Amino acid sequence: MKIGFIGLGAMGRGMAANLQKAGHALMVSDLSREAAASHIANGAVWADTPRQLAAASDIVFTSLPTPADVEAVCQGPDGLAAGLRKGSVWFDLTTNSVDLVRKLHATLKEQGVDFLDAPVSGGPGGAASGRLALWIGGDEAPFQRCKPVLDTMGDQVMYVGAIGAGTIAKLVHNVSSTAISTVMAEVFSLGAKAGLEPLALWKAVSQGAIGRQRTYEKAATRMLPGKFDPPSFALRLVHKDMQLGLQLAKDFNVPMRLCAMAGLEVAEALNRGWGQRDAMVPTLLQTERAGIAPFAVPMEEVLAAMAEVAKG
Fold first, then answer.
1. Could you tell me which residues come within 8 angstroms of residue 259 by beta carbon, excluding any fewer than 6 positions away?
2. What's 208-311's CATH class?
3. Following DSSP, what letter does each residue of the chain receive, concatenated?
4. Would the pLDDT of 212 be above 90?
5. 3-162 is classed in which CATH architecture?
6. What is the pTM (predicted TM-score) of this model?
7. Mind listing the pLDDT tens digit for each residue in 154-198?
8. Which residue of 8, 23, 46, 297 has the lowest C-beta tally within 10 Å?
9. pLDDT tens-digit map of 87-110
10. Strands 133-137 and 156-161
11. Residues assigned a catalytic role
12. Looking at the chain, which residues constitute the CATH 1.10.1040.10 domain(s)?
């Protein structure tokens, strides 16, 4: 298949290079021709406009900074939409907005073009090495047809669901990552101000119960199946530990905004009478606020998914 690639920045350059390493003929485009110098040196053909690239490609990939950039590349007399042929496929690797990917999917469907959202996770290093996750949303048939091509760019290529599903997964991942990083900054500043050398602190906590787990492992075994009884660690004990930790922060005058909010969450769950339940039982408060049913994924499905993820 003839492949077109638009956006050769920090992420795109590595993914496009891996397509070339796998033997695919490539047409490329970017705001700057200099960004494509190495790809052109390795045999890629330069396209002056997105329309020219689309007209010559069976599969188009875009890797762009923002939703506005994706929309700009798509529209206009020289845009992708003007050149895409019936039967072609467009995978947008951008971290995009759900509304925009659904709009593009519906609009391009009328042209006989399959549009799929395909955000990636792994950073520039992963894009270059091929150790990259791609989360795909859209119609499954074009995904399956193009999967051998996608596999040349990432080692964890997953069909997530209908259009927008890949974007939702990516946004959940990135928001949780940012929140975790912010909490880490809070607690490590507390440890340092209380007198512990930061590297010694990291070495200690990285060997604790949570340090030994994958980030989302506990969410799988407790939150998803709604399994809060019997507890692996009781909420009342978490409440005690949170109060002790927040008191330490007060003693050393360390602001702990997010951790203080987490403490209020634990206190609210405790006041519901859940002190003897598992520490993740505050999940029920959040599903209630969101107006959705409590999670109740069958445990056998959770364990099967965990085994699949562990196997990679």
1. 183, 186, 187, 242, 245, 246, 249
2. mainly alpha
3. --EEEE--STTHHHHHHHHHHTT--EEEE-S-GGGGHHHHHTTPEE-SSHHHHHHT-SEEEE--SSHHHHHHHHSSTTSHHHHPPTT-EEEE-S---HHHHHHHHHHHHTTT-EEEE--EESHHHHHHHT--EEEEES-HHHHHHHHHHHTTT-SEEEEEESTTHHHHHHHHHHHHHHHHHHHHHHHHHHHHHTT--HHHHHHHHTTSTTTTS-TTHHIIIIITTT--SS-SSBHHHHHHHHHHHHHHHHHTT---HHHHHHHHHHHHHHHTT-TTSBTTTTHHHHHHHHT-PPP---HHHHHHHHHHHHH-
4. no
5. 3-Layer(aba) Sandwich (3.40)
6. 0.90
7. 999 999 999 999 999 999 999 999 999 999 999 999 999 999 999
8. 23
9. 999 999 999 999 999 999 999 999
10. parallel
11. 170
12. 208-311
Residues of the chain with CATH 3.40.50.720: 3-162
pLDDT at 239: 96
The amino acid occupying position 102 is R
Average pLDDT for 126-146:
97
